[in-house]
Write a structure and sequence with these properties.
The chain is of the alpha+beta class. The chain folds into 2 domains: about 270 residues, ATP-grasp fold, B domain (D-amino Acid Aminotransferase, Chain A, domain 1, 2-Layer Sandwich), CATH 3.30.470.20; about 80 residues, ATP-grasp fold, A domain (Dna Ligase, domain 1, 2-Layer Sandwich), CATH 3.30.1490. The protein contains 16 helices and 16 strands. The strands form 4 sheets. A 7-stranded mixed β-sheet has the order 13-12-9-10-11-15-16. Helix 1 links the parallel strand 2 and strand 3. The chain is globular. The protein starts with a strand and ends with a helix. The N terminus is likely disordered.
Length: about 475
């Protein structure tokens, strides 16, 4: 058994504690029993949407009796744990939403905002000084938030700390893009520098100059984010990154929680097995992993770049190198996997807004945390986004190809599968969020078909060269 030389980290099964009187019992199996709450727990504002972080926050905090105020329209407002529902301007409209949020924070109506998306975390960092001191300490400064959500700044910060990153350049016009691509060579990843300005644009793999000339141009600014584009004009142009073939199966996530006083108090390691769209998308299958080297290296980088809050650092394994490719300074899509592994990150976030959390004094986790983390065998828990995952499997079977993760010789076989989008004990938001993925079935299916066809062609070329 290998010891990881990182202190103050919790990892593993959930701990139990006696529930307080007058609070709802936490849901079983996934969440720990609720620790005692203050007589009147302060409310948490959830800016509603259809994302899994919002639904996870609702169940984690709501099942423990924390009042949840949902603002806006989405699946979360139908949660059984919602204690208040109200309207708000569209979160994408910065010119309207930010003043609205500032007024409510200053009035005391909103005291805590769950960091469920890049945009919400960004707004909260902009308003950091308007929050009470006990909450402010858990909000990263704007410069730190920018360093995480803007990939060019993230890469520069990694370089200063000694963390390797893929070869990346950011030409700011089409001619410079062609010159850069010719110098770097194909294939290349072309993707946004940040989602602050261009919304959900995921990027693509470009295989030659023809594709580059077709696609390398400024992104469309998402409606309502014009002021953000003026603040960060460089974000309208994509970046180019050297494509690493192992990106389909060897992207690891180091995720957890860091208290500004107590340091990193919870951490987990997992591996992205499938994604949508292929090569550039969000995880649709995330599996727990146990690798002391990757976890230790990731935590070293996180400790240098993150001062507080929920985090997810993505590391791409390429040979012996670990390349940092992304840092999410907020809740992430497969956060329920961390919860299933015993690290209830929404709850740690809430507790940290009440009092400093130290390694040996996390309420509801009586096990001493100041012990070396052990590289134990993986539990084999998989967090799965059901609809895209099923579509991917069906298309691959129909076209007779094997997905990249099925070809991995050392892939972990999951012994337990949990849903990535919603919770069975809060079924209505779960149903609405999953059905919403079927609004545009063509855009959901086409990337998988294109990827499967390309993979079959590659296999045919490889088979022909062997004959």
């Amino acid at each position: 058994m290998v010891q990881v030389p990182v202190q103050k980290v919790a990892h593993g099964g959930a701990q139990s504690a006696s529930p307080s009187e007058g609070t709802r019992p936490a849901r079983t199996q996934t969440f720990a029993q609720p620790p005692p709450l203050p007589v009147t727990a302060p409310p948490v504002a959830l800016i509603d949407n259809f994302g899994s972080p919002t639904l996870s926050f609702a169940v984690s905090l709501g099942s423990r009796g924390v009042p949840l105020h949902f603002y806006g329209s989405g699946a979360g407002r139908w949660s059984r744990y919602a204690s208040r529902r109200a309207t708000c301007p569209p979160v994408e409209d910065a010119d309207r939403f930010l003043p609205w949020l500032r007024r409510r924070v200053r009035s005391g109506e909103i005291q805590r905002v769950a960091p469920t998306t890049d945009l919400i975390a960004f707004y909260v960092s902009m308003l950091r000084e308007d929050f009470a001191p006990e909450v402010r300490r858990t909000i990263p400064a704007l410069v730190e938030l920018e360093r995480a959500v803007i990939k060019t700044r993230f890469g520069a910060a990694c370089a200063r700390t000694g963390q390797a990153v893929p070869v990346t350049e950011a030409p700011d016009d089409a001619r410079a893009g062609v010159a850069t691509a010719e110098r770097l060579g194909f294939p290349l990843m072309m993707k946004p520098k940040s989602h602050l300005v261009v919304g959900d644009e995921r990027g693509r793999v470009v295989n030659d100059l023809r594709e580059l000339r077709e696609y390398y141009r400024p992104y469309e600014i998402s409606p309502g984010r014009e002021s953000l584009a003026e603040r960060y004009p460089e974000l309208v142009w994509p970046l180019l990154q050297k494509y690493v073939p192992s990106a389909r199966t060897r992207v690891f996530s180091v995720s957890g929680y860091k208290d500004p006083d107590g340091g990193i108090i919870a951490a987990s390691l997992s591996c992205k097995r499938r994604q949508w769209p292929p090569d550039t998308g969000i995880s649709t299958s995330q599996v727990s992993a146990a690798d002391a080297r990757i976890l230790s290296r990731g935590l070293e980088t996180v400790d240098k770049l993150v001062s507080c809050g929920i985090f997810e650092l993505e590391l791409l394994e390429s040979g012996t190198e670990l390349l940092a490719i992304d840092l999410n300074p907020r809740a992430f899509g497969f956060i329920d996997l961390d919860i299933a592994l015993g690290n209830d990150l929404p709850w740690l976030w809430f507790e940290s807004t009440l009092r400093p959390l130290t390694a040996g004094a996390v309420i509801g986790n009586p096990r001493p945390l100041a012990v070396p983390l052990m590289a134990a065998p993986p539990k084999g828990i998989e967090c799965r986004l059901p609809i895209p995952y099923t579509i991917s499997r069906f298309i691959n079977a129909l076209l007779g190809v094997r997905s990249a993760d099925e070809s991995e010789p050392d892939a972990v076989t999951a012994t337990r599968v949990i849903p990535m989008l919603g919770h069975w004990d809060d079924p209505l938001p779960m149903l609405l969020a999953n059905l919403r993925q079927l609004r545009h079935p063509g855009s959901l299916i086409r990337p998988y078909i294109a990827a499967a066809v390309a993979q079959r062609r590659r296999s045919q070329i490889l088979d022909g060269s062997r004959r």
